[in-house]
Amino acid sequence: MLRKIWIICSLVCCMSQWSSGQELLTVKTAVEVALENNYDIRLTKTVQKIARENNTYGAAGMLPTVTGDLSNNNSVQNSNQLQNNGVERSLDNAKNNNLTYGVSLGWTIFDGLGMFARLEKLQELEKQGDLQMKRTVLTTVGDVITLYYTIVEQQNMLSALDSSIHISNERLRTAQNRFSIGKAAKLEVLNVQVNLNEDVSLRLRQAERVKNLKTSLNSLLARELDIDFMVDTVVNIDDALVYSDLLDRANQFNPDLQLIVLNKRLAELDLKTVKAGRYPIVRVNTGYNFSRSESSLGFVASANSRGLNYGLTASVNIFDGFNQRRNERVAKIQVDNAALQIEQQRLMVHTNLKTAYETYLTNLELVKLEEKNEDIARQNLNITLAKYTIGSISSVEFRDAQENFVNALSRFNTAQLQAKLSEVQLKELIGQIDF
Asked: So which residues are the signal peptide here (predicted)?
């Protein structure tokens, strides 16, 4: 009979996992779908593209500007003219036309090296877009893995409840048989029925929890919310992480720390741009223009001209109310603040890494402990079930063993989940999540 019950429990677990023709969604596939569909990643990609598009010589002000100009002015006037020789001339509805068109070129050839600072800033902003993309990907992948293994934990718990229900069904059948032959009271049958109803109620709540978690994962993957799927219930935990190695990698690859370091570089480039205001701005200008004018009244009835014009302009800031000096001081303060933020962020990363690693070690020990407890509770349930079958223990004692087994299995699943989440948190801190 004992063998029969565990065969039934195994079949229930398998059926709960492979029913309804559901797809098997592995954690790797879930991450790949998220990288393709997740809205945060897609939005960050557009920001990254904008930064890449802005990284040009033209945006830095290093290239000339060429414009085409056209001006056509017309007038109709009643004119009276008194010339120096005493002759008076007048004309009603006198027409005057003036047409000018051409091409002009302007090029700033020196601005205190500010254009080079702006170009380098645009390059750094493109790097910033790449780092922000990396951080978004890490955060999204971490969220997907966390939610996936939360579903694994709850799915395993659901399978345990299925097993518990079948054990309760077998208990009820045994109690009814014992009652029918006069070896048990009606009260025992009723107690077992209450226990079975309690298990069914817990199972309904657990099924709802699993379904809602799957909906949340579908939302994170940006796909249809009603897609049902199975999860791989095996939790593989990397138990070989070393703190010193994690610390070195966090100093190199933590995206938040990299962004803060990049912000300091941007502040230094802003200071260079401000200092460029102390130097003159030199600009060359040239163009080729055509001009034609007509006048109904005047010494010249019509005129045409065309030709090349060119020149050089230079300007320098002599005095601007000490704003140049003030702007430089502010820019230097921002550089100093950025340096402080680097140290602050590095300390924060080290603190989070240290606490996360201690939690990781504790969770690994808890996994080992709860695995042993689960095995002990399973053996205890086997022995109790055998004794209950031959009537040497009461239904209440068997129920205690059954609940102890379910609770031990729940704690083991929770310990596995927490250990996996600690691993994911550590790898997110060092900027390198694998799956």
From this structure: 1-21
Amino acid identity, position 171: R
What domains are defined for the chain?
Answer: 2-429 (1.20.1600.10)
Nearest residue to 117 via CA among 78, 59, 170, 164: 59
Helix H segments across 277-394?
A: 323-389
For residue 346, is pLDDT > 60?
yes
pTM: 0.84
Q: What is the pLDDT of residue 11?
A: 40
pLDDT of 12 over the 50 cut: no
Taking 60 as the threshold, does the pLDDT of residue 2 lie above it? no
On the question of pLDDT at 298 being above 70, the answer is no
State what percent of residues in the chain have pLDDT above 70.
Answer: 91
